[in-house]
Specification:
The protein has helices spanning about 1-45, 50-65, and strands spanning about 50, 75-85, 85-95, 115-125, 140-145, 155. With about 160 residues, it is an alpha+beta fold. A 4-stranded antiparallel sheet has the order 3-2-4-5, with helices on one face. Strands 1-6 form a two-stranded parallel ribbon. It starts with a helix and ends with a strand.
Length: about 160
C-alpha cells in the first residue's frame, strides 16, 4: 500500500519542485533586468554630459547586475525632449539587438512639460527556463525605465 501511495505522490512532488524552481528563477531574472535598467537610467540622469565610452561602461555595469550571461544584454539609452508636437529625440545609444531610436511616441513616459527632457533606458536579456513545462519557453525579458536629468535640463552627448 505504501508503494502505491509513493508511486502517486513522488511524481507530483517532483513536478511541483521543478515547476516552483523554474518560476522562481524566471522571477529573479525579471527582477535583475528591471534593477539593471533602473540603475543605468539613474546613472545617466546624474550626468551633465555623456560619451559613448561612458555609456559602454554603464552597459557593462548593467550586464553584471542583470545576468550571469552578460554578453547577451541588449541595451539602449535615449534622451528625448518634450515639444508641442510630442517628443523629439536628442540622442540615442544602442547595442544589439536594439538600433538607435529615431522617434518616440511617449508611450510609458511620465508627464513632463514642454522643453523638458527625459532619459529612457531599455534593456533586454534572454531567458531560457531550466525546464520547458507549464507554458514556459525561451524568450527575451525586456525592461524600460525613465528618469529626468538631475542637475541640468538636458543631458548632452559629446561624441
Amino acid at each position: 500500500m505504501a508503494a502505491v501511495e509513493f508511486g502517486i505522490i513522488a511524481p507530483v512532488m517532483v513536478v511541483t519542485i521543478i515547476g516552483t524552481s523554474t518560476y522562481f528563477v524566471m522571477g529573479r531574472e525579471d527582477y535583475r533586468t528591471r534593477r539593471a535598467t533602473f540603475t543605468a537610467a539613474d546613472m545617466v540622469s546624474r550626468q551633465t554630459s555623456v560619451t559613448n565610452s561612458f555609456l559602454s561602461n554603464v552597459k557593462t555595469l548593467a550586464e553584471h547586475i542583470a545576468t550571469s550571461n552578460a554578453r547577451t544584454l541588449g541595451f539602449r539609452v535615449t534622451s528625448a525632449s518634450k515639444t508641442a508636437d510630442g517628443f523629439a529625440i536628442d540622442w540615442s545609444y544602442a547595442t544589439n539587438p536594439y538600433v538607435q531610436r529615431t522617434s518616440f511616441d511617449g508611450s510609458g513616459a511620465p508627464d513632463i512639460a514642454n522643453g523638458e527632457s527625459i532619459i529612457m533606458v531599455e534593456t533586454s536579456t534572454p531567458y531560457r527556463p531550466m525546464f520547458s513545462m507549464f507554458g514556459t519557453q525561451e524568450r527575451r525579458r525586456e525592461s524600460q525605465s525613465f528618469s529626468r536629468p538631475r542637475t541640468v535640463s538636458r543631458v548632452a552627448k559629446t561624441d
